């Protein structure tokens, strides 16, 4: 049976089917595979596998394709004949038909090349003929109206088709036509020469490219280069042009440039061509391209520097261009372009690439290394502009530079500098071993040099601080509002990063930025948030816990921390955002290496809130707005039925809070200080933790006393000291302050070092009176607000709108820990037992106090008032 | 949001429930009741009736009790000559009735009971005119909407009706804690018209919170025979002190004050609730106004355009938007009354207590 197959011919379809039907296919499959030697084999094999009928189908397909081809050819022939007879109407109809068939053929996708060629050839031929006709003087007059119409439409359509083709195809078609139709009339050949613009242009260009590219360097004239440049610039932005190729061509041409002015012009074109390659906002410029572009900008600047007669302008063709000879001679010339725009664009591309590259890859790290180059470039451009006293440009560039360095530690900065210097030394030595003059050739030999580093430029001198100082000072003097604000924020950030807390806070408070930040643009708001976060971290590290919590509370209050810091996207559970919105947000994201560790931030915030709030948890339920988030978390936590061992920071802090509440300081401290997150601190961990621990001890002791004092008649100081690991003096000070504040009703007996506690339990009547007075206060509060809304000092209904970042609104009040603290300690508030609303305007408050303060005093029975007041005053007073 | 004192404990039919039998009773006496329209100036309470009221209420304490007042409506004073208690809903025959969800059966039962009672009383020649009802209270917590409702429903049939409130807790301090209350005419006018109680109306009438319920002076009048018996009983024992006098000297002050404080606290809560309602309303109103203004502006523009085109104008009233209804101020007024009541009680009580304490200090000091 197998032999039957091996010998199987085309015509044996029937026998095969017979075989298929009466034999099992399992044996035959192997024989098939071996029988596939013949050219029909594979298809036959497949066909046998499927079914009998498929053979017919295959035939149909093949013939269909052929038919298609055939019809195309036929139509082309018809068109030819129509051309000869000048039957424009039928020609137009035929062209339509032809085009439709072509499209259909394209869809079936077979023999594309041939069909394409055929189509192009036909169209080119037709257009040549038509153009030739249109050139003839009174040709149109001879036509009937119908014919004329068809003719005109034909011209348009042909032009359109021509535009869509690749030039290479067209030229190929032309060549073929020329060679093929040599026997044709001379007119048609000439007509091709005198063809529509596009054809000639491409042809010409092809020629000149060939010419210039192949010509010896010395032979190229200024004009040649110039015209070539114009051609290329003309083709910019057109379809079907390989942008990369354009860049390559231009780069080559730059080498041929005859005079500095021309070189500048070419480089300008290169730069814009390179930017063109990058394309859309979503993708970024490839890194080698970026580097070469950067170098181009640098060399352009060098040229501008050394040739003062060349200047750049933003306006299009502002002044008359001197003649070519003048340019050669070195006449003044203005070219269109802006160094600062280039630098900014490069900066954008850099950021964009960082946003797109996976931050955990090696590529990202390599990419960050380019920042040195960018900084050098910016410095150079800055110097360039500074010499030209273009203050606004300098300021905006300074801002950008500042934004590249503000988040760096000085060590990072120095290592970047070292890296850059090492690199450039390395390259330089490589160069020196070469005979070439390094600086000049940089631009040219891009293939090997893109990997190398910049040579001949030095990293900006001075350390990080002086650089930041210098830049921001310049911006303060010359920049616009936005730059100023950003510079200030950068400065604060940097100071906070380097632990100059007081200075940073001073700057912030002096700036009053927190009042106006709501009206700034979003990226500035993000910068502001970052600055606040950094300030919070700094405050924490130097033991200013309440400040830290007030700085951070904003960021954590909304549950949108990531979004506020632009370090990720908020989980949009309730908000449906449009794609556009998302795109915008993606563009705002901070590059990964600039991120502030959110885990650390959260830990800091929670710990601060705990230290700050834990002693109030017991007695005073009315929370301040600052730590409301913390209280909510605590409440949620205590509502849980089962609490496992802490695994997140949040849980850990909750557990610590619980421990403190039950007086287990030692365990709490151990748990807190062992949190792995503290390794991320910038200040030495031990120092910070020492501060934290100190505070924790104090709070623990305080909490323990106020919580459990009622259970004892006296307490031994030494035992308590041991329990909380506090020194005697510290213990004494804490206890005494508590006694003085009536937090614990006791007497501290100095000689015996013990605390004698006066137990005083409230009678039921007192409890009732207390609750009553509290209720009255609530009512008072409410009526006051109602009155306010009635009088119009504050509108009740002014709730936050849903604008993103509207949380910032409260920033004004919350980010001023100084003011806040002073308010809390101001005696008149506390003594009146009167809760102040942070949001109230000053006027409203005073008025409310005057009219209602008396009321409250009269209503509360005197003896009860003391109790309540004592409780609240002490709990809301700032810690010593 | 009303405060119903110990509502869970008391199974008495509420006065509101008893209104239907009051009506039915009133039908029988319609001729008499219709004559007098002049307001009640005073209440004369028969000694026997007073004792019955006191006994019923004290027995029911700490639960609450209610009953009907019967009597004659003569001239300026309302003469209450007899009374009978309403049965406690839970004690009415089967215990199951008490759990009747809507109380309809209980009410019917009560009505029937009342009618029967009246008939029986008439048969033994007792005045069978309903002139009001009595109820026990707990520390003066009777200012609630129910009281007003009951008054109004009584007033439909009987023009002059009173409510006699008895507070057993006061009685413990050695005072006669009977009080007669009625709704003021001004309030009746404002509230009775439409049953709504808006700020506008209140302002128009110049109604104050203290004007809702007025207290009518109550006098206890005994028959000559009873007086004689009393005189006979008291003869020769004038100097002796009775238990009431001892009650007056009780030094336990805290519970009463505490309880009052708690009640005051509750009042404050109610106030806060009311406050919230108003704030909510105002917010809604604001929103509505801005929306409406917006709509109106649009509509005016539209109308202007239509006028220009010579088309018919659209009406400027809007059916889709309805202004939010303002919350009733009645509750507010009642709470205020309640607070005033508590404060008065406290005031009176503390004054007395202070005196007592002074006295005790002086006595113990002298020893």
TrEMBL record, chain A:
**Compositional bias (Low complexity) at which positions?**
24-35
Q: Which domain of life is it from?
A: Eukaryota
Q: Output this protein's name.
A: Eukaryotic translation initiation factor 3 subunit C N-terminal domain-containing protein
Query: What organism is the protein native to?
Result: Ostreococcus mediterraneus
Give the region (Disordered) as residue ranges. 1-59, 176-208, 798-880
All copies of domain Eukaryotic translation initiation factor 3 subunit C N-terminal, residue ranges: 46-617
GO annotations of cellular component type: eukaryotic translation initiation factor 3 complex
Any one GO MF annotation of this record:
translation initiation factor activity
Q: Which PANTHER family match?
A: EUKARYOTIC TRANSLATION INITATION FACTOR 3, SUBUNIT 8 EIF3S8 -RELATED (PTHR13937), EUKARYOTIC TRANSLATION INITIATION FACTOR 3 SUBUNIT C-RELATED (PTHR13937:SF0)
UniProt KW keywords:
Cytoplasm, Initiation factor, Protein biosynthesis
UniProtKB/TrEMBL annotation, chain B:
Q: Which GO terms describe its cellular component?
A: eukaryotic translation initiation factor 3 complex
Please list where the region (Disordered) is annotated.
292-328
Gene3D superfamilies on file: Cytidine Deaminase, domain 2
Superkingdom assignment: Eukaryota
Alphabetized GO MF terms? metallopeptidase activity; translation initiation factor activity
Q: Which UniProt keywords apply?
A: Cytoplasm, Initiation factor, Protein biosynthesis
Pfam entry (one): eIF3h_C
Keyword set includes Protein biosynthesis: yes
Which segments constitute the MPN domain? 43-187
The regions listed as transmembrane in this protein's record are none
Compositional bias annotation for Basic and acidic residues: 299-310
Q: Which HAMAP family match?
A: eIF3h
**Record's protein name:** MPN domain-containing protein
């Amino acid at each position: 049976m197998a032999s039957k197959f091996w010998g199987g011919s085309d015509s044996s379809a029937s026998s095969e089917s017979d075989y298929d039907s009466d034999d099992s296919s399992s044996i035959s499959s192997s024989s098939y595979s071996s029988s596939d030697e013949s050219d029909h084999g594979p298809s036959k094999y497949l066909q046998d596998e499927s079914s009998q009928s498929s053979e017919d189908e295959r035939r149909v397909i093949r013939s269909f394709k052929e038919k298609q081809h055939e019809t195309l050819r036929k139509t082309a022939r018809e068109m030819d004949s129509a051309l000869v007879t000048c039957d424009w109407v039928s020609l137009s109809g035929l062209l339509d038909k032809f085009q439709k068939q072509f499209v259909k053929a394209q869809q079936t996708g077979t023999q594309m090349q041939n069909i394409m060629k055929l189509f192009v050839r036909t169209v080119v031929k037709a257009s040549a003929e038509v153009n030739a006709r249109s050139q003839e003087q009174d040709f149109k007059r001879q036509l009937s109206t119908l014919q004329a119409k068809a003719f005109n439409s034909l011209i348009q359509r042909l032009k359109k088709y021509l535009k869509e083709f690749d030039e290479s195809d067209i030229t190929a078609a032309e060549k073929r036509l020329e060679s093929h139709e040599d026997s044709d009339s001379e007119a048609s050949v000439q007509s091709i020469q005198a063809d529509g613009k596009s054809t000639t242009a491409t042809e010409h260009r092809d020629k000149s490219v060939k010419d210039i590219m192949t010509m010896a360097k010395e032979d190229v004239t200024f004009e040649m280069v110039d015209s070539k440049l114009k051609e290329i610039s003309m083709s910019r932005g057109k379809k079907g042009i390989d942008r990369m190729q354009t860049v390559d061509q231009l780069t080559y041409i730059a080498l041929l440039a005859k005079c500095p002015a021309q070189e500048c012009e070419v480089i300008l074109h290169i730069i814009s061509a390179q930017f063109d390659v990058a394309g859309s906002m979503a993708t970024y410029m490839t890194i080698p391209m970026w580097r070469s572009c950067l170098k181009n900008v640098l060399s352009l600047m060098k040229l501008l520097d050394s040739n003062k007669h060349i200047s750049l302008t933003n306006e299009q063709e502002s002044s008359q261009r001197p003649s070519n000879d003048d340019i050669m001679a070195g006449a003044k010339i203005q070219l269109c372009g802006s160094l600062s725009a280039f630098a900014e664009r490069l900066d954008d591309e850099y950021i964009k690439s960082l946003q797109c590259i996976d931050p955990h890859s090696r590529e990202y790290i390599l990419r960050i290394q380019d920042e040195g180059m960018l900084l050098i470039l910016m410095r150079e451009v800055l110097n360039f502009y500074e010499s030209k006293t273009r203050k606004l440009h300098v300021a905006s560039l300074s801002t950008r530079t500042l934004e590249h360095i503000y988040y760096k530690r000085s060590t990072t900065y120095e290592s970047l500098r070292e890296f850059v210097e090492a690199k450039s030394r390395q390259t330089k030595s490589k160069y020196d071993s070469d005979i070439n003059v390094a600086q000049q050739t940089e631009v040219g030999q891009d293939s090997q040099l893109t990997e190398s580093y910049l040579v001949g430029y030095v990293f900006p001198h001075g350390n990080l601080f002086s650089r930041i100082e210098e830049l921001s000072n310049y911006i303060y003097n010359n920049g616009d509002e936005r730059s100023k604000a950003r510079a200030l924020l950068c400065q604060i950030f940097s100071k906070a990063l380097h632990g100059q807390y007081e200075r940073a806070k001073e700057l912030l408070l002096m700036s009053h930025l927190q009042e106006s930040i709501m009206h700034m643009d979003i990226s500035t708001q993000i910068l502001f948030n970052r600055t606040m976060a950094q300030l919070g971290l700094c405050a924490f590290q130097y033991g200013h816990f309440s400040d830290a919590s007030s700085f951070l509370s904003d960021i954590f209050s909304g549950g949108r921390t990531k979004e506020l810091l632009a370090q990720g996207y908020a989980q949009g559970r309730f908000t449906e955002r449009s794609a556009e919105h998302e795109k915008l947000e993606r563009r705002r994201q901070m590059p990964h290496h600039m991120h502030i560790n959110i885990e650390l931030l959260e830990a800091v915030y929670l710990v601060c809130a705990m230290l700050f709030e834990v002693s109030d948890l017991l007695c005073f339920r009315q929370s301040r707005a600052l730590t409301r988030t913390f209280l909510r978390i605590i409440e949620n936590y205590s509502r849980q039925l089962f609490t496992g061992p802490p695994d997140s920071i949040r849980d850990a802090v909750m557990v610590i809070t619980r421990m403190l509440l039950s007086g287990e300081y030692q365990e709490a401290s151990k748990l807190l200080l062992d949190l792995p997150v503290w390794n991320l601190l910038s200040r030495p961990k031990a120092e910070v933790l020492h501060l934290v621990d100190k505070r924790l001890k104090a709070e623990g002791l305080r909490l323990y006393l106020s919580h459990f004092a009622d259970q004892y008649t006296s307490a031994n100081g030494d035992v308590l000291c041991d329990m909380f690991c506090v020194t005697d003096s510290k213990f004494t000070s804490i206890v005494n302050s508590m006694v003085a504040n009536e937090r614990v009703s006791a007497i501290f007996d100095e000689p015996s070092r013990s605390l004698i506690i006066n137990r005083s339990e409230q009678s039921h009547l007192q409890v009732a009176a207390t609750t009553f007075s509290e209720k009255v206060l609530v009512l008072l509060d409410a009526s006051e607000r109602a009155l306010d809304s009635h009088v119009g000092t504050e509108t009740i209904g002014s709730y936050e709108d849903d604008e993103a970042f509207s949380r910032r609104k409260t920033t004004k009040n919350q980010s001023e820990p100084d003011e806040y603290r002073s308010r809390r300690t101001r005696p008149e508030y506390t003594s009146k037992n009167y809760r102040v609303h942070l949001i109230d305007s000053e006027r409203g408050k005073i008025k409310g106090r005057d009219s209602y303060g008396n009321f409250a005093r009269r209503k509360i029975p005197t003896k009860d008032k003391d109790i309540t007041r004592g409780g609240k005053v002490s709990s809301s007073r700032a810690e010593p | 949001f009303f405060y119903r004192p110990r509502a869970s404990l008391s199974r008495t039919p509420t006065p509101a429930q008893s209104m239907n039998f009051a009506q039915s009773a009133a039908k029988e006496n319609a001729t008499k009741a219709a004559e007098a329209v002049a307001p009640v100036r005073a209440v004369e309470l028969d000694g026997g009736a007073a004792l019955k009221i006191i006994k019923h209420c004290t027995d029911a304490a700490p639960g609450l009790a209610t009953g009907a007042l019967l009597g004659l409506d003569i001239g300026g004073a309302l003469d209450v000559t007899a009374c009978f208690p309403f049965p406690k809903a839970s004690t009415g025959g089967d215990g199951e009735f008490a759990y009747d969800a809507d109380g309809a059966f209980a009410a019917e039962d009560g009505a029937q009971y009342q009618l029967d009672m009246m008939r029986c009383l008439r048969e033994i020649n007792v005045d069978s005119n309903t002139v009001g009802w009595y109820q026990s209270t707990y520390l003066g917590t009777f200012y609630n909407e129910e009281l007003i409702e009951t008054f109004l429903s009584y007033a439909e049939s009987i023009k002059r009706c009173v409510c006699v409130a008895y507070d057993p807790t006061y009685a413990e301090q050695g005072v006669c804690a009977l009080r007669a209350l009625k709704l003021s005419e001004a309030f009746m006018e404002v509230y009775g018209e439409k049953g709504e109680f808006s700020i506008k109306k209140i302002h128009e009438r110049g109604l104050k919170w203290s004007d809702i319920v007025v207290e009518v002076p109550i006098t206890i009048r005994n028959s000559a025979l009873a007086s004689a018996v009393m005189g006979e009983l008291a003869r020769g024992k004038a100097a002796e002190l009775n238990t009431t006098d001892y009650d007056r000297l009780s030094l336990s002050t805290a519970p009463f004050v505490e309880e009052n404080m708690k009640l005051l606290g509750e009042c404050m809560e109610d106030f806060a609730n009311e406050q919230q309602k108003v704030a909510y309303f105002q917010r809604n109103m604001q929103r509505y106004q801005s929306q409406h203004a917006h709509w109106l502006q649009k509509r005016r523009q539209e109308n202007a355009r239509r006028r220009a085109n010579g088309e018919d104008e659209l009406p400027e009233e809007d059916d889709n938007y309805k202004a939010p209804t303002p919350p009733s101020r009645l509750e507010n007024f009642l709470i205020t009354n309640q607070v005033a009541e508590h404060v008065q009680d406290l005031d009176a009580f503390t004054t007395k207590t202070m005196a007592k304490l002074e006295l005790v200090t002086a006595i113990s000091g002298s020893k």
